[in-house]
């Protein structure tokens, strides 16, 4: 969330926005074996929900990834999946903004 790659994405650079997750991970130096089963250490559905939350918050309130991550880091957001995943993305973001005082006037 705080790397140069994410900064380029925040500014809308199409060279960084139009890559697949595998290409992005490779660019960041992360090597993943795509033939392995889903890890028991994490849940990919939660990661997808987190991406929706971060993306909506960034778009709706014109925040950078860095601003959001400084208030609620990925590990902390992962832990908030239960029960927030039951809410819509919009309602989940609204609740998180109130809890962590993220973005403009609350």
Index terms:
106 residues, mainly alpha
Question: Summed up, what is this model?
Answer:
The protein is mostly helical. It is 61% helix and 0% strand.
What does this structure look like?
It is built from eight helices and no strands. The protein is mainly alpha-helical. The mean pLDDT is 82.
The averaged pLDDT comes out at: 82
Order of helices and strands: HHHHHHHH
- Rg over CA atoms, rounded to whole Å, is 15 Å
The residue fraction in helices comes out at: 55-70%
Q: DSSP helix count? A: 8
CA(first)-CA(last) distance: 23 Å
In terms of topology, how is this protein built?
Layout: H1 4-10, H2 14-17, H3 21-27, H4 44-61, H5 65-71, H6 74-79, H7 81-84, H8 89-100
Helix pairs in contact: 4-8
């Amino acid at each position: 969330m705080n790397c140069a790659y994410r900064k380029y994405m925040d500014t809308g650079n199409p060279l960084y926005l139009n890559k697949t997750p595998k290409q992005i991970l490779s660019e960041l130096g992360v090597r993943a074996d795509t033939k392995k089963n889903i890890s028991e250490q994490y849940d990919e559905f939660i990661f997808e929900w987190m991406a929706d939350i971060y993306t909506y918050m960034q778009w709706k309130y014109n925040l950078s990834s860095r601003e959001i991550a400084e208030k609620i880091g990925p590990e902390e957001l992962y832990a908030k999946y239960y029960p927030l995943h039951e809410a819509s993305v919009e309602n989940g973001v609204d609740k998180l903004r109130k809890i962590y005082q993220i973005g403009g006037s609350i």
